[in-house]
């Protein structure tokens, strides 16, 4: 996909250009999605007692919350190629808000399970976020742009852990019974999701020069039915071994993050005998590292690219993922609360930097099938979460044992990052594009305010 006039810099405090509107709206939309996607997680101790759920059943709902996202992410990337990220995001947010608001009607394990399964579709929002910034920003800053929007979106995993118990506490203070409180609390993120979907439609556009439909009318993009059929784009991506290597890699970082978002609060609640609000606050610290950690992953990816091109981006991904696995194994061994929190933050830092590093590579794998590549790799995150979920549904394994085995798996999968290689011609072409973007940024430096 040949998109012109991509931004060569990130003017962080600007909302005036289509690139920066897409930047800010995409991270905010993804952030809000976490309130719908994982809003129930910090309330699970109450839900468990209300619905009489067993550990196995809780594990099954955790798997359900991320399983459907695998399928939806595969489809949403191709949908972005066809109709553009603007319409794709609007439909996903508006439709996704419905099961979020309706989960309160669950009165059994089966109905609760189905509600979490339906809500999981919202997780496909990540692919649209990464797609939108990939078509809006040039090669010298695309790693940083992708990592920052995804990171600030993932930050929703932390704020959700902190705010949802407070929302429920506020309802209880108004005299609402606990069994009704968690149900009413979930209506709040549902409403916000719907309103955000409407705002996304009116405040963004697909590309720097207009929406895909307009660009195709002007002949600046190929017609959707010719180049962007599902068979053509998905097939091109699926035949590339590098895409599946990144699929596994992303499962070992974002999949791990999703798993921790689901189990952290109940782990601290049970293992360290904390109250619900305190456990949620500590669990929220893990997600709050997204404020800067994933951005750092993208920044380092761009810096490694400056020195060593695409090979540098791959090398940095391997380092970040390996350190993540080692830190997770360490976290699983901690018995003292203060030390466990410290190691969790180190682990969180490398998890999120690995995520940023992954999508610092994705835009360069296949430009003509960008949506399909982003969809497959993004689906890997949820596939990883599904696989990890089985470690935490077994009555025979403790949460500590599950975390340790998960860390070992991450260490092994880090080696798959080294399978991502680029031809000499691609390295040279992307090197020239990088230098051109840097030169453009220097030319504009005297006319634009200081920015990231």
TrEMBL record:
<dbReference type="InterPro" id="IPR044772">
    <property type="entry name" value="NO3_transporter"/>
</dbReference>
<keyword id="KW-1133">Transmembrane helix</keyword>
<feature type="transmembrane region" description="Helical">
    <location>
        <begin position="403"/>
        <end position="422"/>
    </location>
</feature>
<protein>
    <recommendedName>
        <fullName>Nitrate/nitrite transporter</fullName>
    </recommendedName>
</protein>
<feature type="transmembrane region" description="Helical">
    <location>
        <begin position="152"/>
        <end position="174"/>
    </location>
</feature>
<keyword id="KW-0472">Membrane</keyword>
<keyword id="KW-0534">Nitrate assimilation</keyword>
<feature type="transmembrane region" description="Helical">
    <location>
        <begin position="243"/>
        <end position="268"/>
    </location>
</feature>
<dbReference type="InterPro" id="IPR011701">
    <property type="entry name" value="MFS"/>
</dbReference>
<feature type="transmembrane region" description="Helical">
    <location>
        <begin position="88"/>
        <end position="106"/>
    </location>
</feature>
<feature type="transmembrane region" description="Helical">
    <location>
        <begin position="369"/>
        <end position="391"/>
    </location>
</feature>
<feature type="transmembrane region" description="Helical">
    <location>
        <begin position="112"/>
        <end position="131"/>
    </location>
</feature>
<feature type="domain" description="Major facilitator superfamily (MFS) profile">
    <location>
        <begin position="22"/>
        <end position="425"/>
    </location>
</feature>
<keyword id="KW-1003">Cell membrane</keyword>
<dbReference type="InterPro" id="IPR036259">
    <property type="entry name" value="MFS_trans_sf"/>
</dbReference>
<comment type="similarity">
    <text>Belongs to the major facilitator superfamily. Nitrate/nitrite porter (TC 2.A.1.8) family.</text>
</comment>
<dbReference type="Pfam" id="PF07690">
    <property type="entry name" value="MFS_1"/>
</dbReference>
<dbReference type="InterPro" id="IPR004737">
    <property type="entry name" value="NO3_transporter_NarK/NarU-like"/>
</dbReference>
<feature type="transmembrane region" description="Helical">
    <location>
        <begin position="180"/>
        <end position="203"/>
    </location>
</feature>
<feature type="transmembrane region" description="Helical">
    <location>
        <begin position="58"/>
        <end position="76"/>
    </location>
</feature>
<feature type="transmembrane region" description="Helical">
    <location>
        <begin position="21"/>
        <end position="46"/>
    </location>
</feature>
<dbReference type="InterPro" id="IPR020846">
    <property type="entry name" value="MFS_dom"/>
</dbReference>
<feature type="transmembrane region" description="Helical">
    <location>
        <begin position="314"/>
        <end position="332"/>
    </location>
</feature>
<keyword id="KW-0813">Transport</keyword>
<feature type="transmembrane region" description="Helical">
    <location>
        <begin position="274"/>
        <end position="293"/>
    </location>
</feature>
<keyword id="KW-0812">Transmembrane</keyword>
<feature type="transmembrane region" description="Helical">
    <location>
        <begin position="338"/>
        <end position="362"/>
    </location>
</feature>
């Amino acid at each position: 996909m040949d998109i012109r006039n991509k931004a060569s810099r990130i003017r962080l405090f600007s909302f005036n250009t289509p690139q920066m509107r897409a930047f800010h709206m995409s991270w905010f939309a993804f952030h809000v999605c976490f309130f719908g996607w994982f809003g129930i997680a910090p309330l699970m101790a109450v839900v468990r007692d209300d619905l009489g759920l067993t550990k196995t059943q809780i594990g099954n709902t955790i798997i359900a919350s991320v399983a459907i996202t695998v399928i939806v992410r595969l489809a949403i990337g191709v949908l972005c190629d066809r109709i553009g990220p603007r319409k794709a995001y609007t439909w996903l947010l508006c439709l996704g808000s419905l099961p979020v608001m309706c989960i309160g009607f669950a009165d059994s394990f089966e109905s609760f399970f189905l509600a979490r399964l339906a809500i999981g579709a919202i997780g496909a929002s990540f692919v649209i976020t990464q797609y939108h910034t990939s078509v809006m920003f040039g090669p010298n800053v695309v790693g940083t742009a992708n990592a920052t929007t995804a990171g600030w979106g993932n930050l929703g995993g932390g704020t959700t852990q902190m705010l949802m118990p407070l929302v429920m506490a506020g309802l209880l203070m108004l005299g609402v019974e606990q069994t009704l409180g968690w149900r009413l609390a979930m209506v709040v993120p549902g409403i916000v999701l719907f309103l955000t979907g409407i705002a996304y439609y009116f405040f963004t556009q697909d590309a720097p020069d207009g929406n895909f439909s307009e660009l195709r009318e002007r002949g600046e993009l190929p017609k959707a039915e010719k180049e962007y059929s599902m068979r053509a784009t998905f097939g091109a991506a699926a035949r590339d071994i590098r895409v599946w290597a990144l699929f596994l890699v992303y499962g070992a970082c974002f999949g791990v993050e999703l798993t921790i978002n689901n189990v952290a609060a109940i782990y601290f609640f049970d293992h360290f005998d904390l109250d619900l609000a305190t456990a949620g606050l500590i669990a929220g610290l893990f997600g709050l590292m997204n404020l800067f950690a994933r951005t750092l992953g993208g920044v380092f990816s761009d810096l490694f690219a400056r020195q060593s091109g695409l090979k540098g981006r791959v090398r940095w991904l391997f380092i970040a993922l390996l350190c993540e696995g080692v830190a997770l194994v360490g976290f699983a061994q901690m018995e003292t609360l203060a030390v466990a929190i410290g190691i969790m933050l180190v682990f969180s830092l490398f998890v999120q930097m690995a995520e940023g590093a992954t999508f610092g590579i994705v835009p360069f794998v296949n430009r003509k099938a960008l949506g399909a590549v982003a969809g497959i790799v993004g689906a890997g995150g949820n596939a990883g979460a599904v696989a990890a979920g089985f470690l935490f549904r077994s009555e025979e394994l403790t949460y500590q044992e599950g975390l340790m085995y998960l860390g070992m798996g991450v260490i092994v999968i880090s080696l798959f990052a080294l399978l991502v290689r680029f031809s000499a011609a691609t390295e040279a072409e992307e090197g020239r594009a990088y230098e051109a973007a840097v030169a453009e940024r220097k030319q504009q430096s005297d006319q634009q305010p200081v920015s990231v």
